[in-house]
Design brief:
Chain lengths: 166, 166
DNA sequence: TTCTATCGGTTCCGAAACGGAACCGACATG
DNA sequence: CATGTCGGTTCCGTTTCGGAACCGATAGAA
């Protein structure tokens, strides 16, 4: 499979990866969530090669995850901001973060703790069902053909998306 | 920054990416959640180059995300299975899946629907607070130094992990 | 006016990673 | 003993990456 074919596969995971399934892209997005917005600052904080950064920012902008907003004229300079589509990636970041906290941290614990403003506790995220509110585990769902399926049957990759009862 | 330095950074997101922040790795893991376990089957379903597949399976095994389990002797053959650490990546997959469903699907809708066995509804995942159960948004948390921090201060990347009040 | 600095890139080079195809080793089967 | 299966490894040509230099528009200082 070629990498460019990914965004045409009938699998939402593959399509997501066509945008964020890249070494640098998620680190760039981490900085975006930190409110880093300028080329220079991305470069300094990440130590990324400039042309790779330019390429990733362009791809993210083309994908509608970031948008260029002018912050000065003469000389015209633009900064990169998360769009709504980009902000919606927050759960992805949070999932990766929680997994890293649990499995990749030093013996003493994670480097950073997150405290929920509303309840005051140190927290992590729990995936729950959008309809009934129960915790969603890896084997709690069945899959079925969606309206965007091609050929009227589950794509080979489909069952991976919710795990079959098999 | 070199790629090998990622797993030593004081940032759980970076550390997670040192394992799953790769083009092919998450697609291999998608197949794992689909209960694909054998070299041949990964290769056929993904169309991945064999030596790249061998490399990814080795890295995932070394990282403790997969484990090799013999399924026959003479000739000895082994298959790859998700460990507990690997199964814990399910929220990551689900987040990417939901984002793809929302932002990358065809106009008609996503290719696959997931139905919650418990409540019977077509669902997506919602991130909620592990302590109070409320929905967690991108700006609902503050960050503070964790026990695994180095140097007694928030790493530069830290605030990205929960977003500062700034 | 020229000199230097800033910001957001682009260009170029050598090294690393990738796609594709061939090959290999340990067996089993016909 | 020829062929097939499975899980790799090796090799080669192309793509991508890291690192450094360069560029274009402009501002401010000398």
């Amino acid at each position: 499979m070629r990498w460019e074919e990914l965004d045409r596969q009938p699998c939402s995971l593959a399509r997501s990866l066509s945008i964020v399934g890249d070494r640098w892209t998620l680190l760039v997005l981490r900085e975006c969530f930190l409110r880093v917005r300028r080329f220079e600052e991305f470069e300094q904080r990440l130590g990324i090669a400039r042309h790779v950064l330019a390429d990733r920012l362009k791809k993210l902008t083309d994908a509608g995850v970031l948008e260029k907003v002018p912050y000065q004229e003469r000389p015209r300079r633009e900064e990169y901001r998360l769009t709504e589509k980009g902000l919606d990636l927050y759960p992805v970041m949070l999932s990766l973060l929680d997994w890293g906290d649990k499995w990749m941290a030093e013996p003493e614990g994670p480097p950073v703790l997150r405290r929920h403003k509303a309840c005051g506790h140190v927290v992590h995220a729990v995936h729950t069902c959008s309809e009934c509110g129960e915790v969603l585990g890896a084997r709690d769902m069945t899959v079925e053909i969606g309206p965007g399926a091609k050929g009227g049957e589950l794509p080979p990759a489909a069952t991976a998306e919710g795990n079959p009862s098999k």
